[in-house]
Amino acid sequence: MKLFAQHGYGPGDKILNGFKDRTIDGVIFSARYEKMEKITSDAENIRSISSEAEILLDPECYSCFYAHQSDAKLGGLNGWPYFFSQRRSQLETSEAVEKILTDTFDTVVDLPLTSIVAPNIFIPRSFNSIEAVIAKNFIRKTHQLFEKTGDKRNVFATLAIGRDTLIDQTEFEAFLNDITALDNPPDGFYIIVGGGVTDDRTEITSSEIIHADVIAGWMMLNYTLSINGFKVINGFSDILTPFLGCAGGYAGATGWWSNLRMFSMSRYINAVSGGRLPTIRYLSNTLLNRITHSERRAFVKFIPEINNGLPRDKDYEAGEPDRKVEVLQSWEAISHLNNKIVVSDINESLQMLEDMVNRAERNYTNLAGYGLPVNREANREYMEALMISIQTFRRNAEI
Amino acid sequence: MEHLPDLEQLQDSLKAKVDNLLFVDQGGFKAVYKGSVQEKPEAIKVVYIPSDINEEDRIELIGRVTREIEALDKCKSPEFVQLGSLPPESININGIDYIIYSEKFLDGENLRSKIRENYKPDLSELIQLTVTFLKAIKLLKENDLIHRDIKPDNTMKLKSNERPFVILDLGIAFKIHGTELTRNPRFRPGTLLYMAPEMFNPRFRESLDYRSDMYSAGITLFEYASGVHPIRKRADDDFTTMYRIIRSKPQPLSTLRPDLPSEFCKIVDQLTKKLPALRPASFERLLKKIKELS
Q1: Which of B207, B249, B285 is closest, CB to CB, to A229?
Q2: Which of the residues B6, B19, B25, B149 is marked catalytic?
């Protein structure tokens, strides 16, 4: 399974360093933070390090319903020619959907991207909704309209959904049945699953995404689409990336801010924030979680495997590292998990995944036993959700 | 079939059209005979129309014949039986109504007979059967049709390498976008043991697609390959069988046919998944995979 950098505010040289480390295989540029005129030089810089790098652009059209709001936080999105404020009722006509798709393709087709991500809207609550009907229309027309550009690159339909959509099993299954049997389907899907309202410090592991049905549903999307021949790229998947890989996903992505590690539509609304920056953390594969530098130093004395034993560990040896190192360590950790756990036999992969969750749970129990503060209740719930999600996925996917 | 017509009386009714009539087989409402039409062998289909049924049921039965003929006319390919030279006509024998028409005669036997003989097909034969099913379902899909009754009894193994298998009986084929058929609950839309789980959803007409035929084909392939139906248990009543179709996970084909490549077994297993989205939807990809195994 591949790991991509989820691009956002303030990339600096993080992405280039990730390619140098060989821990990322691609990048998903954010149209909100990447200017059209800058993509060519950024892509060239990436290719000078990794000629195989996959370069995509998320057009972020799913934020179009916010564009007319005074407190919208859209960054550079208004600078892209395809991006306009939309009302839901406008998109109920096929002509409007076709115009957005065509305008987006016409804009991005000249950019040095390796594949094209099509626009779509966000389905917040249910697959039995007006938004879902509009989103399906976008998906149905993605390939048909992309073909008109004459471009031969792969085109990915965007499927941006709220976590609640994955909980209503009946509607979710009906949706799966629909999108796996399209007459002129896209080459793949770019999937984003959004949690509720989050702030700058919400981590995916303590978010609404960590719910057994949500994770199992996200895995199910990857599984059904992959067995039907689609490539699935998961945005904002962070530590869940190996889970999605075991289910057949092609790639996952994560970035350097907490809002690049999990998706929420609240990122497009101006929130009261400020204060100090979040604490720099270390992603421990054996805990499946991020811990602070001081926690790491304390835990490792009792459980040495808290350290991943990977090259980026050395950046943490002398104390809290520079902030720009944090994401490099995260990419290294997740990429290592992907390589270890995602194998061609799905049963074997799922077994390794279960072993990994069991090991993490044992480690939390042991740390608590040593009298170390590990927020035991929250982590117990986190582990339980992960374990049940694997079981639920096995059952739903009839494995 | 109730009120199977007397062979001599039937021959009399068809004189000047069909000679040398011989009984071949029968089902619930239909009997099949072999006869010569203009000196060529054809399968003569005789459909019984009961007199004690209401008008709606009568329309349903007659509609099945009409639809089968229309569907066969659309699906002119080696994977399907072809229409014969006798167009449908109503006849009355001893006060009982029948509809008679003909199909091209096929020299072979159905898969049910082979299963009863404990016949074990090899990989190349199973690949031929899979390819026949996929090509047939693809053609049906292109014509907005769902067969709904693919099963060993409706699949013939012929004595021909060029045309190894043929699918029969499109009598309950479902026309997507505007069929009126089989709304009567007395007529089950398929054969229970081969019906896809989604067919038991009362709202199945809203979402039914070609993957229900993929399921029936998968069950047929499983049974033909192993001699065992993957879901049925001998003592089960219909209700229990229905429950099993919706809920029970079939055992993997590889446990019954370990000699077959695991890739082939996985394809068959995947075709029999409960959720249509879990069944492979792309004919091209499946055909490529299957051909790679040969």
Answers
A1: B285
A2: B149
B149 classed as catalytic: yes
CA dihedral A43, A49, A51, A52 (to 10 degrees): -90
Quick check: B181 pLDDT over 50? no
Q: Are residues A388 and A287 in the same domain?
A: yes
pLDDT higher at A13 or B144: A13
Report in angstroms the alpha-carbon separations of A391 from A243, A287, A350: 12, 20, 9
Tokens 């199992």 map to which residue?
A216
Say yes or no: A90 and A214 in one domain: yes
Co-location of A293 and A160 in the same domain: no
A188 CA: distance to closest CA in chain B (Å): 14
Q: Contact, A192 vs A118, CB < 8 A?
A: no
Given CB atoms, is B144 within the 8 Å cutoff of chain A? Answer: no
B129: tokens are 């059967």
Verify whether the Cβ–Cβ distance A181 to B207 is below 8 Å.
Answer: no
The average confidence (pLDDT) of chain A is: 93
- pLDDT-based confidence at residue B186 (cuts at 50, 70, 90): low
For residue B276, list chain A residues with Cβ-Cβ distance below 8 A. 177, 180-181
The parent domain of residue A292 ranges over 281-396
Assess contact for B102 and B42: CB atoms under 8 A. Answer: yes
- Of the three residues A235, A268, A301, the one that is the final residue of a domain is A268
Question: Is A385 a member of any domain?
Answer: yes
Q: How far is A277 from chain B (nearest CA, A)?
A: 44
Instruction: Give the number of domains in chain A.
Output: 2
Domains (ranges, CATH) in chain B?
7-104 (3.30.200.20), 108-293 (1.10.510.10)
Judge whether A273 lies within some domain: no
**Residue at B79: amino acid letter:** E
Residue A276 domain-assigned (yes or no):
no
Same domain, A299 and A254: no
Residue A80 lies in a domain: yes
CB A82 within 8 A of CB A63: no
DSSP one-letter code for A167: T
What is the average per-residue pLDDT within A216-235?
97
On whether both A230 and A367 belong to a single domain, the answer is: no
A64 with A180, same domain: the answer is yes
Give me B132's structure tokens. 């026949």
How many residues does this entry show for chain A? 399
In tens, the pLDDT along A8-59 reads 999 999 999 999 999 999 999 999 999 999 999 999 999 999 999 999 999 9
Collect all residues of chain A within an 8 Å Cβ-Cβ radius of residue B280.
227-229
Report the chain A residue with the minimal C-alpha distance to residue B203.
Answer: A174
Domain boundary among A268, A303, A335: A268
Which residues have a Cβ under 8 Å from the Cβ of A146 and sit 6 or more positions away? Answer: A101, A105, A116, A118, A155, A186
